[in-house]
Design goal:
Blueprint (H helix, E strand, L loop, with lengths): L7 H8 L6 H4 L1 H24 L1 H12 L2 H7 L3 H30 L4 H30 L4 H19 L5 H9 L18 H11 L1 H22 L1 H7 L4 H29 L2 H20 L3 H29 L5 H30 L1 H22 L15
């Protein structure tokens, strides 16, 4: 559902709706990010109260009109409305699948579980971006690329309703036998924290939780740039739609495949080195995008960008799972994803305003600088959250 938009909507904004200001083009990402961030937060609380599966099914029901709105949209306002629904869909469904896998896997293999979850999602994003690029080059920007979305929404709803089982009791069982770290660092993170306290701990009080939240926000600020502006940068340099589509697909493809390795790697090496190293690699890749002028250079840059994101993305989620108490872990994941997907909003505003004032290259350099600064902040503030000595299945 997300991948069908990564190439087509920026080009649709320019070619069919005549949007020339980059801030105008990025309004669909702002709408998506704002509603997804709010839905992420709601998903954590709702899944603790009503169970994971009802939230998952509700998210897929909301997805059903999205491709139809994009096909029929007579004006840009319809595209914004579709992305409000897409943000609700993504927030409810993806947050819930993250929580469900953390429920099931136990403390010693959270990185592996998050790598599998995020790899499944972003390999699908990459495949769909490539498929929609092919369809757009062959048939035009509408309606054929969005037929895929109709099938995805139906499949998501059918699988969630018929195949998925409830996992909330797994978290309750883990909470009953939960033991804190031997060094006592998490003693204040007990089971009885209320929603306001969970929000405070995850947002700014607890060093690892808050550092992960802010690093996640910068990551999606960067992804908003990659989604909304990089296709326009590549197309503006004269690349054909098929090559722009390939670049749009390479980034999430490397991101998705890489997570099959990096999530499990963080269970062995720890979380912090992968997060810091990944953000530094992202900053380097964005600098290469700004300096590049040809398809081969940009192909290398987006591959490096995907590799850096693969190091960061599942590892941040695993960090939240390491630190949060099982009794309120779903709500902590919701707060983290509130911050992380708020990065789409910040990215749409910051990158759009800079691009309008100073050009696309300046926007890329600005986000590269922010990403590098975030790596320094994580290196300074975050402690290592994964206890590598913990035996499989034992409480951490």
């Amino acid at each position: 559902m997300y991948g069908q938009e990564r190439l087509v909507l920026p080009l649709l904004a320019r070619d069919e709706f005549g949007l020339t200001a980059y801030t105008g083009v990025l309004t669909f990402i702002l709408a998506f990010g704002a509603t997804k961030a709010i839905a992420n937060y709601a998903a954590g609380t709702l899944s603790d109260r009503y169970g994971r599966k009802p939230v998952l099914v509700a998210g897929w029901l909301i997805a059903l009109p999205v491709p139809l709105l994009l096909i029929w949209a007579p004006g840009w306002g319809w595209v914004i409305a579709a992305n409000v629904l897409l943000g609700l869909n993504q927030g409810l469904t993806w947050s819930t699948t993250v929580v469900m896998k953390i429920d099931l896997v136990g403390p010693s293999r959270r990185g592996l579980a998050m790598g599998l979850n995020e790899a499944a999602g972003y390999l699908a994003v990459a495949a769909t971006a490539m498929a929609t690029g092919y369809l757009a080059a062959r048939h035009g920007l509408r309606p054929e690329p969005f037929y895929l979305g109709i099938a995805f929404a139906a499949l998501g709803l059918g699988l969630s309703t018929l195949a998925v089982r409830e996992t909330r009791d797994h978290a309750r069982l883990e909470a009953a036998s939960h033991a804190g770290r031997a060094d006592g660092r998490h003693a204040h993170l007990h089971a009885e924290l209320n929603n306001r306290e969970i929000l405070a701990q995850t947002s700014y009080r607890e060093p690892a939780l808050s550092a992960a939240s802010h690093a996640g926000m910068v990551n999606n600020l960067m992804d908003g740039l990659a989604w909304g502006l990089l296709p326009l940068l590549f197309a503006g340099a004269g690349l054909p739609v098929a090559q722009v589509g390939l670049l749009a697909a390479l980034y999430p493809a490397v991101w998705g495949l890489g997570q099959l390795l990096t999530g499990a790697l963080s269970d062995r090496t720890g979380r912090k080195p992968l997060i810091v190293g990944g953000q530094l690699l992202q900053g380097l890749a964005l600098a290469l995008v700004a300096l590049g002028e040809s398809f081969p250079v940009w192909a290398v840059a987006v591959v490096l960008l995907g590799a850096g994101t693969a190091l960061v993305y599942p590892t941040l989620l695993a960090t939240i799972g390491d630190v949060a108490h099982p009794a309120w872990r779903a709500r902590a994941v919701g707060v983290y994803r509130l911050w992380r997907d708020g990065g789409f909003v910040v990215g749409a505003l910051v990158a759009g305003l800079i691009a309008d004032a100073y050009g696309l290259d300046a926007a890329v350099w600005a986000v590269a600088t922010l990403t590098t600064a975030s790596a320094v902040a994580v290196a300074t503030r975050m402690y290592e959250t994964h206890n590598r000595a913990t035996s499989p299945g034992s409480p951490q």
